[in-house]
Amino acid sequence: MNAEIIAIGSEMLSGERLDTNSLYLTAELNRLGIEVVTKCVIGDDRERLAAQVRQSIGRSAIVILSGGLGPTEDDVTRDAVALALDRKLSYDREIGEWLEQRFAAAKRKMAEVNKRQAFVIQGAQILSNDRGTAPGQWLEESGAVCVLLPGPPHELKAMFERHCLPRIARIAPKQVIRTLFLRVAGMGESDLDQLIAPVYKKYENPVTTILAAAGDIQIHLRARCETEAEADALLAEVGGPIELLLGDRIYSRNGDPLHTVVGQMLQLAGATVSVAESATGGMLGERFTSVPGSSAYFVGGFITYTNEMKVELLGVPPETLAQFGAVSKETAEAMAQGARRRTRSTYALSITGAAGPDPGDQNVPKGTMIVGLSDGAGTISMQRQFLGDRQRLRTFTAQLALDVLRRRISGLL
Amino acid sequence: MNAEIIAIGSEMLSGERLDTNSLYLTAELNRLGIEVVTKCVIGDDRERLAAQVRQSIGRSAIVILSGGLGPTEDDVTRDAVALALDRKLSYDREIGEWLEQRFAAAKRKMAEVNKRQAFVIQGAQILSNDRGTAPGQWLEESGAVCVLLPGPPHELKAMFERHCLPRIARIAPKQVIRTLFLRVAGMGESDLDQLIAPVYKKYENPVTTILAAAGDIQIHLRARCETEAEADALLAEVGGPIELLLGDRIYSRNGDPLHTVVGQMLQLAGATVSVAESATGGMLGERFTSVPGSSAYFVGGFITYTNEMKVELLGVPPETLAQFGAVSKETAEAMAQGARRRTRSTYALSITGAAGPDPGDQNVPKGTMIVGLSDGAGTISMQRQFLGDRQRLRTFTAQLALDVLRRRISGLL
Questions:
Q1: Which of A239, B43, B127, B313 could cross-link B163 (Cys pair, CB 3.0–4.6 Å)?
Q2: Does A72 touch chain B (CB under 8 A)?
Q3: Domains and CATH numbers, chain B
């Protein structure tokens, strides 16, 4: 069963904005076993939109439109769909009264133009909108379904979930979709793909998707079958060997990002962590504290961007800086020790590195990034040479620091 | 003159990936005065793509396709366009040899499938690819132009810039586009729009676009005229009153983000800054240090997530915390003073606040965020009540801190 998504709005035909509703809609439709075969963006143009709707309904079972249901002249969706299906558009008194009540409740006078939102296409079922003034419409035409949804994402999602998903589930082919979700740290995308492609390439079902960010790779395996047992067996057949190949590089099986996983490990261990950041300037602390409740294990830290601050705030010996330089394992380790000593945390992580724009020298070229870790058992450090722009180098390194701590807590380091 | 953009690739019909090439292409086409009226994403399906190409060429002067030029069976663009235009596809020996040389230079054997990339649609001009193996193609058909570009963004951009922009500029209507670009801090989107809409709503040219992020609003005015003088006059006519209304809330006229602007101001003043972050956990330091060369003015700082750390690392008096609480102007000011004293920076910024998930209490509800600033002239603080989730509250507050410093350096505070 195929679907098409049409986003309406000239603002999404600028160089700045993308239609993102289609991501949500696609994910939901896929879950029901429905493929999205085309999506498009049309400006506020009645004839052009009508032509697209006619074409889409002629070839796909489900056509979902988002946007263009507002009260102004620019909002052409109702008119365009009525035109495409050659149906009448008429004022619905009930919606009109509901709109007037909404405005009255907000102590505002309803403008005459808002009446446009009470127009319904002949034969449509109304989809009520809890979060805005534009009702949706559900239409059926020669075996196909055409749904009009409002553009604002929170209105669209609420309406789709409440009114459309149950209706679509009834007409969708009966099948089960199960997903295996892995997150992996400490590997490049091409190395990972080379390792696991021989396994997943043999299968069209499950579908394997690999999404790579700096130091963080997500692997999705989606199996579609007639029964749960079949889907689970298929995921085990393909996912099992992949999990074996990746081993302890897998840090999450539920989608949680690395800072959340490490936070949970710290909390379970009753341990705390502090940071000492040079090149990342606060990025690691920001990641730890992006998790609600992180005060249970994150105590704080130091941003020591200059050598002077490394000496004064962390007690890094000036001789260490003089002899080995700011970007050295010795400095990283002294930073971690200093942070741990001054915050009395269980673990302290440090980061130093050459993030550019300075190309660096032969010993410390741009991209040399070092992570230090200090705890009751001692102090270790890890040096890497990363590629990329400043922000990418920093992101790689914050991720590496989190992974070093994960491995330490897990007894892998 | 109208254009359409067609992105080819089933991966862009998943719930995870969007086509972003179209943003770049739209911005470039707009600059030449060409409107993008429709864009769509088609999977790796020859017939469906051919139907779309036929339709688009029938109604728009320029049709740009991206993706589907690789060597595999999935890469259907060449075939689909040949089918749509009813033209032959034939092997081009010159491209074939160029491909073989490329592989030889990389000491790899060219696989037989790669020959597919040497097939050219009858009548096409070849667009060479400096960054990959897929050449582009430029076709003309009954007054319309159809361009085939590779999907990887860096290949597409290089090819479009080098081969397509000059060709399109020759056929584009003669006109000049000038843009006025403002960035504004310290205002909500609806307040800003209410203030300036009476000015810009009267004009269809320039086109005004407002993009809002947490505490950061971008306003673009784009004027299209026959001459530069006309465009500049029009921008002055509309932009002048808008600039007057927004006054010193405008912080950038060249697109630079606030942390870059503040960094430039610090550097010009020969001043330095340090930070003391509680609720933002390093976000402010991360923003300062995201700018290459920020070590000229950013010395470092403290992440003091617990009360204990506020006392120990910053010297906040325990009585202040006991009497006023961690989220208070008194604590924020003591934090800024402590950071300045311990780093000897010209300015110190502090942040404390209730970012949730705890709903807080009556005195300090969730969303209460406080910024402190200390310098040679004294210490000030600013309290705000923001709305949103944890990350949005933190983003708002880091932006507020930067804006407080901007105003202080400018003598507005």
A1: B127
A2: no
A3: 2-171 (3.40.980.10), 176-252 (3.30.70.2860), 258-409 (3.90.950.20)
